Amino acid sequence: MMTAAYVAMLVSGLGMFTAITPDAWKLPLAILFSSAGGMLPDAVLAGAAVHAPSPAQVGSVSGVIVQGANSGSLLGPPLLAAVAVSVGWHGGSVLLAACSGLGLLLTLMLAGTERRLIAGQAGAGRPGSG
User: Fold this and answer.
1) What pTM value is reported for the model?
2) Residue 62 covered by a domain
3) Cα 44–chain centre separation
């Protein structure tokens, strides 16, 4: 789900602020960007129990996730405004695409980590593996 959300944000982020995108498409792209971005905190929170070092730390891990999401909501708009003022609105597309691309890369890295965790747990249950 995270991969699909970041791809949707990358595509819509590229199209929202470019001059070649027809005006009629800009609002639907903005809605897609926001909707896809809204799926990310839920998807990340769903994995908190898997990635927490211990069951007692799930709450702390969840808190860090929420803080990260809120930090993006707090810092993103002023950063986008600064980019738009300094280089123009097309810079907003570059910023949104770069952030979405970074999120996609981190998601793919996390997926690899999760695969190794699952493989390690499966291997630990086999006779002769311990």
Assistant:
1) 0.78
2) no
3) 8
Distance between CA atoms of residues 12 and 114, nearest Å: 28
Count structural domains, the chain.
Answer: 1
Report H helices in the chain: 2-16, 23-46, 48-51, 58-87, 90-124
Q: For 127, list phi and psi in degrees, rounded to 5.
A: -60, 140
Residue 82, pLDDT score: 96
Q: Which domain holds residue 97?
A: 2-49+75-121
Instruction: Give the dihedral sign, CA 34/18/109/71.
Output: negative
Q: Could you give the C-alpha distances from 35 to 6, 82, 88, 104, in angstroms and in order?
A: 11, 24, 25, 16
**Is 126 within the bounds of a domain?**
no
Instruction: Answer yes or no: is pLDDT of 23 > 90.
Output: yes
